[in-house]
Design goal:
Elements lengths: L2 H19 L5 H15 L8 E5 L5 H7 L4 E6 L2 H9 L3 E4 L12 E7 L10 H11 E13 L3 E4 L10 E4 L2 H8 L3 E8 L10 E9 L5
Parallel strand pairs: 1-2, 1-4, 2-3, 4-5
Antiparallel strand pairs: 5-9, 6-7, 8-9
InterPro entries: Methyltransf_25 (IPR041698), Methyltransf_Superfamily (IPR050508), SAM-dependent_MTases_sf (IPR029063)
Keywords: Methyltransferase, Transferase
Organism: Fictibacillus nanhaiensis
Length: 213
């Protein structure tokens, strides 16, 4: 990722840490969390139920997962966001998805809601490979992003300062980009989530594929 782009994104979220910490999880997001927890509970190979929350933000999702008896590790690009996670009693580190400093097969599952939409399209395959590496055999990966149309760049209507970079995919293209590394267990659109912004929310529950080099 371009260093200036990453620093801009970090500045945006540092500035918003306090306000995001005060927000309440929307009902549709709670539904996504519940479905993820149920899928992980039914996975016979997930013994410890360890979860990596990528782009954890203020830790609301991580806290919800931990309250449902999951061993959660949060990472975020923003130091301020990481501090809000730690204030909730969560394990949290300043880290981004371009270099996941964990051993291979460290986690039963990965949760990433509205995180990977900040990855330039040219970089997403490498980021997905990093996630694939830290997942255990048959590990589950939740990826939720806004999209439904094809575009990439800084969102000029963004209320955050600095304005953030977004990548959006059509449904077909998003499924294609995850296919080399993951099996799609579920893909659905949460239309409620995209009201007012003219986009869909694309929800994917994925399982790690075995890749033979």
């Amino acid at each position: 990722m371009d260093l200036l782009l990453k620093e801009s994104l970090k500045a945006s979220y540092n500035e918003q840490a306090d306000s995001r910490d005060q927000s309440v999880i929307q009902s549709w997001k709670t539904d996504e969390l519940k479905a993820f927890i149920a899928a992980l509970a039914s996975n016979p190979k997930a013994h410890q139920h360890t979860v990596l929350d990528i782009g954890a933000g203020s830790g609301q999702h991580g806290k919800y997962l931990s309250q449902h008896h999951l061993d959660v590790t949060c990472i975020d690009l923003s130091p301020n966001m990481v501090e809000t996670c730690r204030a909730k009693g969560l394990k949290a580190e300043v880290m981004d998805y371009y270099a996941l400093h964990f051993d291979a097969e460290s986690f039963d599952a990965v949760w990433a809601m509205n995180t990977l939409l900040h990855v330039p399209k040219v970089s997403l395959p490498a980021v997905l490979k990093n996630i694939h590496t830290v997942l255990s055999e048959d590990g589950l990966f939740y990826m939720g992003v806004y999209g439904g149309k094809d575009s990439e760049g800084v969102w000029q209507e963004d209320s955050y300062i600095p304005k953030r970079f977004f990548s959006f995919y059509t449904n077909e293209d998003l499924l294609k980009v995850v296919a080399p590394l993951f099996d799609v267990l579920d893909f659905h659109i949460v239309s409620e989530a995209g009201r007012g912004i003219g986009m869909n929310f694309q929800s994917l529950l994925l399982r790690k594929k075995v890749i033979v080099d």
